[in-house]
Design brief:
The chain has 22 helices and no strands. The chain is an all-alpha fold. It is elongated, with a radius of gyration of 41 Å. It starts with a helix and ends with a helix.
Length: 452
């Protein structure tokens, strides 16, 4: 069992004093831990007594770090040193996760946003807040993530402006974290998606600006400027440009832009569409964005995502293939028809009975048969044949009726229905049976004629 006083003194010398030095406080000279503890066999074991003492002494610093206190979360290179120190301590403190589960994370985010105002030119401080959240994830912090995300959504999505562009950015990061934590993913996948959020936050904060309908994380006062920044600021945005475009197109009417601003925004949207045609879209952020905006993301992709250059190219190739296929089929059909007409001509010239020619013509649809009959009669060698001259008027009358009678019957039926519909209701009721029977006869007549 470790000596309590020895544990406390060791933690003070090895951890607390180091943190105080990083904070700029003078807590005495650095202690050589080997000379004071190691060489004398006084280095405490990391047993429950040690861990309990470590937790109790670190709680004030945990609170400072969780809330972005400027005394601990200072600017410059010390941020990284403090981050590494806190991560190292939390690995040893098995009570940190339980303690963090009881903390108000929205208040913490608000404090981070408020303290960030003290460092106007320090744009990277937001990434220290990411480190705080990663420690919560690693330590298995348990909160009511659904309730938290609901509160944050009310704060961010239901108002034109919450606080200021920095505080709102921190709240959006926390919202994203709560949405990741709600997913039925393994801890490993949650970490992977969280790292994607970290790596692509510069892009995603512009996407959040559109989704929340007010600008976060940047000083721009115009959504047009936000869109232009996404389109031109970084090549790393290009594979994900379609995600921003879908969000913008889905929400642009809700931005309530003045007419002049709307015209400028329309111009940027057209430029963005042209840029999208030159980009190959990536699906890297799909799982993440689907988790962040589960009610909107997939729908926006379906409704608003323009075709990529490759998709347009593939579609164009497919159209060309279909046109070529159709042209080939049409060419083949023309050859077959030409061959059929040639065969019919030979039948007439060979004095084969006209009845056999009629039988062949009846095998073809009315319009096609009519055209072939006309072409036969236009041939000078055929139209002088006695048998053809004798039977042609009968054939002409037969195929004219076959072609036009179904059309005339349909027109007659439409006219009858229209006439009846204009009569008073009482007359219509009395005529119902007559129309029904008459209609059946007309339809039967049409079907018979079409079949013929």
């Amino acid at each position: 069992m470790n000596d309590i006083d020895n544990c406390k003194e060791y933690i003070q010398d090895s951890i607390i004093n180091h943190l105080e030095h990083l904070m700029g406080n003078d807590e005495g000279d650095d202690v050589n831990l080997w000379e004071k503890y190691g060489s004398k066999g006084l280095t405490p074991q990391k047993d429950p007594v040690y861990r309990s003492m470590l937790h109790a002494m670190m709680v004030p610093y945990y609170k400072m770090y969780l809330n972005g206190d400027t005394r601990l979360c200072c600017i410059g290179s010390k941020l990284e040193s403090i981050g590494r120190e806190m991560a190292h301590v939390i690995v040893e403190d098995d009570q940190f996760g339980s303690w963090a589960s009881e903390q108000n994370l929205i208040t913490s985010a608000e404090c981070w946003g408020d303290n960030m105002k003290h460092f106007e030119k320090e744009s990277k401080r937001i990434y220290r807040f990411f480190h705080v959240l990663e420690l919560l994830l690693q330590s298995d912090c348990q909160q009511d993530w659904k309730r938290l995300s609901g509160e944050l959504k009310e704060m961010l999505f239901k108002a034109e402006v919450c606080y200021d562009y920095k505080t709102d950015e921190v709240l959006c990061v926390l919202h994203a974290f709560t949405m990741i934590m709600q997913q039925e993913w393994t801890k490993k996948k949650k970490l992977e998606q969280f790292h994607l959020l970290y790596q692509h936050w510069l892009f995603l904060k512009h996407y959040y600006s559109v989704m929340t309908r007010h600008i976060i994380g940047v000083k721009w006062t115009s959504f047009r400027k936000v869109a232009e920044t996404v389109m031109t600021a970084s090549q790393s945005f290009k594979p994900h440009l379609h995600i921003f475009y879908c969000g913008l197109m889905d929400c642009v009417d809700e931005l309530h832009l003045a007419p002049a601003r709307q015209r400028r925004m329309d111009k940027v949207i057209l430029q963005m569409q042209e840029e999208l045609n030159r980009c190959e879209p990536s699906k890297l952020l799909y799982d993440l964005c689907d988790a962040l905006f589960p009610e909107d993301f997939q729908r926006m992709l379906r409704e608003n995502r323009p075709k990529s250059y490759k998709e347009v190219e593939d579609e164009s190739h497919r159209k060309d293939e279909l046109i070529e296929q159709m042209q080939a089929q049409t060419k083949l059909l023309h050859k077959q028809l030409d061959k059929t007409e040639e065969t019919l001509q030979q039948m007439v010239l060979s004095s084969i009975p006209i009845e056999r020619v009629d039988e062949e013509l009846m095998k073809y649809p009315p319009g096609m048969a009519w055209d072939m009959l006309s072409n036969l009669n236009a041939n000078p060698a055929i139209c002088v044949q006695p048998a053809w001259r004798e039977n042609y008027p009968t054939l002409l009358d037969k195929y004219r009726k076959r072609l036009y009678e179904p059309i005339e019957l349909q027109q007659g039926m439409a006219a009858a229905v229209k006439e009846i519909s204009l009569k008073p209701p009482l007359v219509i009721d009395k005529a119902h049976d007559v129309i029904t029977e008459g209609g059946k006869k007309i339809v039967k007549n049409i079907n018979r004629k079409i079949t013929e």
